TrEMBL record:
SMART domains: AAA. GO terms for molecular function: ATP binding; ATP hydrolysis activity. This is Iron ABC transporter ATP-binding protein. PANTHER family: ABC TRANSPORTER ATP-BINDING PROTEIN, HEMIN IMPORT ATP-BINDING PROTEIN HMUV. PROSITE patterns: ABC_TRANSPORTER_2. It comes from the Bacteria.
Length: 273
């Protein structure tokens, strides 16, 4: 087995670990939600969007991959089996950002983001490096002006951006994002998707993101997974996965998929079925 955390950039490039999910089942008490689910391997640098109706099991799937729910099956990063590892070891590879906004604690945004790096306060160099990293992420997300604001004085959208900064600063190998743009205005929705995509490519991260806006998912994802009733109903490029037939089956809407001038496409919903 390969120890991913201790591998050098050279040999990790050579082995290019993919995230492979096979025969995954998970749920709550006596309530199975995810049933024997397998996905195409997700490659380094890829952004994969998970879409589907309310209660389809999207958050449950992310929590199961992150090791936060009892699950059976296999979640492998390269040849390392992640499922069943102690949470602290799993967290070295995978970071999950939940749908819920962070607690309104009395820390500044900068302190909150730096806190995610868990450096010792004794070591001045580490603290300085952590601060620089945190500031860089805040700048990328366009919220460096909030660095000295207290978390409990922020709006919902500002707290969501802080939560994302807290996750990104750790540069995990696998990033699981549950509706990261649900509280954001148009500018920040696009800004976040653009930055997540760029950071994934730069840092060779694997990103699995739950989104409800299909046009945004189509524009910013390499691949789409459509989930309904805890099972995959379509998977592939945005063009392959988001079709009028799938939208009718899964969301019960009459929809068109229209090409845009920039090569992406928009989903136009005409009516409910
Ligand atoms: N803690 C829990 N205990 C029991 N059942 C739960 C729990 N959390 C979620 N569920 C159930 O699991 C199913 C899937 O929920 P999940 O939150 O994964 O769906 P989702 O696709 O993320 O939905 P949404 O788009 O509405 O956020 C739902 O039927 C829900 O009621």
């Amino acid at each position: 087995m390969t120890d991913i955390a201790s591998s050098t950039p050279e040999n990790s490039m050579a082995s290019a670990p993919a995230l492979t999910i096979e025969h995954l089942s998970a749920g709550y008490r006596n309530r199975p939600i995810i049933k024997n689910l397998s996905l195409m391997p997700m490659q380094e640098g890829q952004v994969v969007s998970l879409i589907g109706p309310n209660a389809a099991g999207k958050s449950t799937l992310l929590r199961a991959i992150a090791g936060l729910l009892p699950a059976t099956g296999s979640v492998r990063l390269g040849d390392v089996e992640i499922l069943g590892l102690p949470l602290v070891d799993q967290a070295r590879h995978i970071t999950y950002t939940p749908q819920e906004l962070p607690q309104q604690i009395a820390l500044t945004v900068l302190e909150t983001v730096m806190g995610a790096l868990q450096v010792s306060r004794e070591n001045r160099q580490d603290v300085d490096a952590a601060m620089q990293k945190a500031i860089d992420v805040l700048e990328r997300l366009g919220i460096s002006h909030l660095a000295m604001e207290q978390l409990d004085r922020l709006s919902g959208g500002q707290r969501q951006l802080t939560s994302l900064a807290q996750t990104l600063v750790r540069e995990p190998k696998v990033l699981l994002l549950d509706e990261p743009i649900s509280a954001l205005d148009l500018h920040y929705q696009l800004r976040v998707m653009k930055e997540v995509r760029e950071i994934a490519a730069e840092k060779r991260m694997i990103v699995l993101v739950v989104l409800h806006d299909l046009s945004i998912a189509a524009r910013w994802s390499d691949r789409i997974v459509v989930l309904a009733n805890g099972a995959v109903v379509a998977e592939g490029t945005p063009q392959q996965a988001i079709t009028p037939e799938v939208l009718s089956d899964v969301y019960q809407v009459k929809a068109r998929v229209e090409s845009c001038s920039q090569g992406s496409f928009t989903v136009m919903v005409d009516d409910v079925v």
